[in-house]
Every structure is written in C-alpha cells, then in structure tokens.
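Postdoc handover notes: sequence design on the structure in folder B. Input tokens:
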C-alpha cells in the first residue's frame, strides 16, 4: 500500500505555527516539506506556491542563512512577479548581504506593485518607501525615489513620521528641504524647501532640537522652522526639563551661531517672550549669561540679539574676541 502523503496546506499551517513560536529551524523544515508536496502533487496556485517560498525565505533569514533566503525570494518573484512580498524578502536579504544598490532596485520594483488605495496595503507602501529613502540616502542617489513621489499625501506623512521616530534627521532634512536633484513641480521635493499637502503634526521636535544642539549645520535649524510652519508643535522644542521653547532656541543659537529659530519664535509670539522664565526663574538674558559662564568657548560671533523683557528692549552683543577680552554690552531702551 502506498504511503499516505499529507496535504501541503496542513504542513504549511504547522510551519506557520512553529514560526510564530520562534522555532525557525522547524518552520524551515515544514516549509521545505510543503514545497515538495505542492510541486510534486500539484494543486497549488502560483499565489500559494510563491507564498511558500516567501515564508521559507523569511525563516532562512531568521536562521542567518541569507544566501538561501535570497534564492527563495527570487524564486518567489519568478513564480509570481505581481506579488510584492517576494521583492520585500529579496530586498531585505540584499541589505543583509551589503548590496544596497541591488536592494534599492528590488525595493523600487516591489513598491510599484503596492496599491496604497487598498487600506490593507497602506503601511506596506510606507514600509517600501522607507527602505527606498534610507538606501537612497546611503548610496547618495535619489533616482529611484523620484519614481514614487506621486504616492498619496498620507503615505508621505507617515513616511516623515517614521523617519522622525528612527531619528533619521539627515534623511528627513533631504526629504523636506530638497536636494537639488528634483524638479520644482515634484510632489515633495523642490529647491525652495516648500512642503506638499502633508501633515507633520505628529513629528515631535524634541529629538531634532537635541540633534540641532550638537550640530553646527544651520540646515537643521531651518528644518525645525519649516516643521513649525507646517504643523509641528512649538511645545516640543525643549532641551532640558523646565526650559521653554525660547530658552531651548537660545541654546541652539549659542551653539550653532544661528539665531533663526530664536527669532522665529520671538516674532511668532511677541507677547509671550516678555519676561519669559524657565523653571529656574531665568530670563533669556540670564540663560545666555549662565551658558557662557559654563562654556566660555562658545561664541555668538558678531550676532546682535534683541530680546524683549517686560516693556524694555535689550540689545546684547558678544564679540568674537579672545576669551579674556570677551565682553557683553547691554543697551537699554524703553520707558
């Protein structure tokens, strides 16, 4: 009597169960058995067979067998070129094999197959574009991303949020301020740093401001200003417990020699800046004096700052002179 052959579907289901429990070796074995049964006995559609190879690719990758994972991913694509999952598996494997250009091409091809209008695939579209953006930044080529700029605005909004959560500030800067390689009529990118109709309200500025404080590049200051102009919260501008957005912006100004963020806040809130104090009771001038006392090597250069305290206008100027000759001039005008 011939031996009984189990259904490939039942074997696949067992593989899915052990995969869910983290037993990747058992999952790989069951998927291999299911593939054998499906190919020998027949009865599996191209979608079902490609899913088997996709699942085994995933379990191979979890085991660290990246070459085998890539082979299964390519086999999945060969069986069903219209399913994005094979491209996703292949792209992830190529990344692990340190082949970013090949991974970028595969992710781009797969992204084109994802219809973000289908609610189930919305986050899949975002995931693909996140990978395309990250790899484009890594290799310094944005050609592939340019083919996907027609994605829906909510896709781009979620993409920006993902970049912010990952603290990919350099990438976020390029996305929102432009790189000079995109035409002005592009949906998202141009030379003028203007945003498309996307929401940035969910992007918390706290981490970006901390990054700004550690960088001398004023571009990140301009990024913070643009985010504020397009929905991000001013209250997220903070560097330490108890400071105000104004005090945090003042620290940024001292460390980067760029006062644009400070003046953006002052001009946007002329009444609030009067007598504003942090949790220690320090006004902006007190904060500046204490900062320079702690870090005398920090200079404002030849920057003139006009701060409002109550109804008096105070002009403060620090000159770029040797530390022993540094001086502060306070000019008072008011009633």
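Designed sequence:
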């Amino acid at each position: 009597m011939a031996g009984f052959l189990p259904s490939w579907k039942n074997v696949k289901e067992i593989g899915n169960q052990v995969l869910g429990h983290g037993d990747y070796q058992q999952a790989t074995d069951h998927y291999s058995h299911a593939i054998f049964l499906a190919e020998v006995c027949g009865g599996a559609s191209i979608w079902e067979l490609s899913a088997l190879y996709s699942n085994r690719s995933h379990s191979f990758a979890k085991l660290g067998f990246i070459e085998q994972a890539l082979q299964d991913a390519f086999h999945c694509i060969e069986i069903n070129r219209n399913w994005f999952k094979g491209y996703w598996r292949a792209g992830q494997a190529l990344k692990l094999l340190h082949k970013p250009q090949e991974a970028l091409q595969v992710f781009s091809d797969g992204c084109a197959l994802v219809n973000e209008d289908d609610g189930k695939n919305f986050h899949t579209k975002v995931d693909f574009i996140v990978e395309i953006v990250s790899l484009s930044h890594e290799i310094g080529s944005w050609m592939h991303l340019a083919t996907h700029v027609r994605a829906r605005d909510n896709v781009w909004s979620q993409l920006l949020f993902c970049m912010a959560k990952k603290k990919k500030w350099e990438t976020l800067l390029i996305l929102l301020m432009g790189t000079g390689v995109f035409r002005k009529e592009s949906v998202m990118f141009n030379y003028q740093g203007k945003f498309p109709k996307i929401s940035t309200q969910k992007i918390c500025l706290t981490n970006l401001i901390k990054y700004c404080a550690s960088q001398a590049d004023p571009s990140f200051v301009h990024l913070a200003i643009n985010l504020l102009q397009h929905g991000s919260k001013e209250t997220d501008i903070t560097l330490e417990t108890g400071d105000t957005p104004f005090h945090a912006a003042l620290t940024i100004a001292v460390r980067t020699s760029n006062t644009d963020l400070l003046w953006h806040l002052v001009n946007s809130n002329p009444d609030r800046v009067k007598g504003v104090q942090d949790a220690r009771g320090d006004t902006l001038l007190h904060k500046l004096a204490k900062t320079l006392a702690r870090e005398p090597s920090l200079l404002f250069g030849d920057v003139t700052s006009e701060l409002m305290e109550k109804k008096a206008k105070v002009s403060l100027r620090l000159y770029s002179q040797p530390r022993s000759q540094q001086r502060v001039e306070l000019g008072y005008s008011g009633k």
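Context for whoever picks this up: Confidence is low (pLDDT under 50) at residues 179-194, 300-335. Don't rerun without checking with the PI first.
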